[in-house]
Task: inverse folding
């Protein structure tokens, strides 16, 4: 039976290694996984995998792409995000605006205050990565984003 233990960044690293994903690590100890350009998504996708919150017990996977949304497309991008959020459980999609350029951010989070076993963390990581890529395939192929 799997052992539940306190959540920490070493569990994220173990998950990424077990899935044979190449990653970078930042000065806070969080992780980045970068996927190069793919015709099915029409973009490059980057995953940030972090332990967040005051006690670093919330596991957060943020997904961004290199696709930028000009201001005249913001309404359409919001509608695309809303449709995804209404039809899919995760990741949550939203438009982030910085000046005159927007980008879609996907967010997948879970609070592991009670601890977690490695198999559940591995599954959460795998599903977050798969769903993030699926969003961009869907947005490109079905929504021409």
Result:
């Amino acid at each position: 039976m799997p052992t539940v233990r306190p959540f920490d960044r070493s569990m994220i690293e173990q998950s990424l290694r077990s899935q044979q994903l190449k990653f970078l690590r930042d000065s806070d100890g969080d992780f980045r996984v970068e996927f190069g350009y793919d015709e099915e998504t029409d973009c490059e996708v980057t995953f940030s995998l972090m332990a967040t919150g005051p006690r670093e017990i919330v596991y957060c996977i943020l997904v961004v792409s290199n696709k930028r949304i000009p201001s005249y497309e913001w309404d359409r991008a919001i509608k695309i995000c809303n449709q995804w959020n209404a039809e899919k459980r995760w990741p949550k999609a939203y438009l982030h605006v910085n000046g005159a350029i927007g980008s879609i951010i996907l967010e997948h989070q879970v609070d592991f205050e009670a601890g977690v076993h490695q198999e559940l963390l591995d599954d959460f990581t795998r599903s977050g990565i798969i769903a993030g890529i699926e969003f961009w395939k869907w947005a490109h192929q079905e929504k021409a984003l």
Notes: The domain at 9-141 is CATH 3.30.1460.70 (Yope Regulator; Chain: A,). Strands lie at 24-25, 31-38, 43-52, 58-65, 69-70, 92-98, 101-111.
